[in-house]
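hiii so um. not sure if this is the right channel but i have a protein structure encoded as tokens and i wanna go backwards to a sequence. like what aa goes where. can anyone help
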């Protein structure tokens, strides 16, 4: 699976657009809240990012995609004590140029 934060993959052309795919993970925030989470990173944040990425890739594969373009991440740490991590992009079929 090719994954790119850009709207294209070098050396490939988009043959078919399959649609939006996303992965979403929620974890308990470490004590210290939003600021310490953003500054410290740590296993909780890394695990949430990896889990959301893996879910996004699996959803793209289930659609028949061989690439995901325009990938972005978003992290929210509301007052509830949980952090929500989302990874999303556009599932596509690409062909070499």
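sure thing!! here u go:
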């Amino acid at each position: 699976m090719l994954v790119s934060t850009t709207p294209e993959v070098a050396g490939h052309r988009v043959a078919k657009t399959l649609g939006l795919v996303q992965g979403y993970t929620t974890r308990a925030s470490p004590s210290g809240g939003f600021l310490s989470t953003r500054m410290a990173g740590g296993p909780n944040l890394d695990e949430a990012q990896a889990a959301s990425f893996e879910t996004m890739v699996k959803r793209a594969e289930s659609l028949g995609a061989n690439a995901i373009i325009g990938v972005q991440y978003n992290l929210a740490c509301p007052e509830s004590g949980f952090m929500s991590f989302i990874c999303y992009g556009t599932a596509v079929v690409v062909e070499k140029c």
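oh and The chain has two helices and four strands.
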